[in-house]
């Protein structure tokens, strides 16, 4: 984003930055096999002020691309580990990834709360 001399950098910092998928092999060995490399990035990331119906339609189209991708699992894990705040990654929207991360945190907390006696009793 270009700034005019009179535009404050602080104002620019408040605008959320939409990250696009890395387009080089440094993103991981899986990235070179991603089907989305051949598709338009706009399918995976929302334009500003996108109407809800258009967003849902675009996300479904992106998910169809992801469904045929041989590296869907690797992409999804990348988006969950980073975590990627925007776009469709690994067949999941940002909201769906937040749910997965929340469930993982709860499961990890529950597993940590179990005592060895409870674990041996279950086994």
UniProtKB/TrEMBL annotation:
Please name the GO terms that the record assigns under molecular function. 4 iron, 4 sulfur cluster binding; dinitrosyl-iron complex binding; DNA binding; metal ion binding; protein-disulfide reductase [NAD(P)H] activity
One BP annotation, GO = negative regulation of DNA-templated transcription
Can you quote the record's cofactor note? Binds 1 [4Fe-4S] cluster per subunit. Following nitrosylation of the [4Fe-4S] cluster binds 1 [4Fe-8(NO)] cluster per subunit.
Write out the ranges of the annotated region (Disordered). Answer: 1-31
Location of the 4Fe-4S Wbl-type domain: 35-99
Give residues annotated as binding [4Fe-4S] cluster.
36, 66, 69, 75
What ranges does the record list as Polar residues composition bias?
A: 1-11
Keywords attached to this entry = 4Fe-4S, Cytoplasm, Disulfide bond, DNA-binding, Iron, Iron-sulfur, Metal-binding, Transcription, Transcription regulation
As for PTM, the annotation reads: Upon Fe-S cluster removal intramolecular disulfide bonds are formed. The Fe-S cluster can be nitrosylated by nitric oxide (NO).
A single Gene Ontology CC term = cytoplasm
- Cofactor (UniProt): [4Fe-4S] cluster
Where is the protein situated, by its record's location annotation? Answer: Cytoplasm
Described function: Acts as a transcriptional regulator. Probably redox-responsive. The apo- but not holo-form probably binds DNA.
Query: What family, per the record?
Result: Belongs to the WhiB family.
**What's this protein's name?**
Transcriptional regulator WhiB
């Amino acid at each position: 984003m270009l700034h005019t001399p009179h535009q404050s950098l602080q104002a620019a910092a408040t605008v959320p930055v939409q990250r696009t998928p890395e387009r080089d092999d440094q993103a991981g060995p899986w990235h070179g096999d991603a089907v989305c490399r051949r598709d338009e990035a706009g399918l995976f990331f929302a334009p500003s002020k996108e109407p809800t119906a258009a967003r849902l339609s675009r996300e479904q189209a992106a998910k169809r691309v992801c469904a045929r991708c041989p590296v869907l699992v690797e992409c999804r894990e990348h988006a969950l580990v980073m975590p990627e705040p925007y776009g469709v990654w690994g067949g999941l929207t940002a909201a769906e990834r937040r749910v997965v991360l929340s469930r993982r945190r709860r499961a990890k907390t529950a597993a940590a709360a179990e005592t060895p006696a409870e674990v041996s009793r279950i086994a």
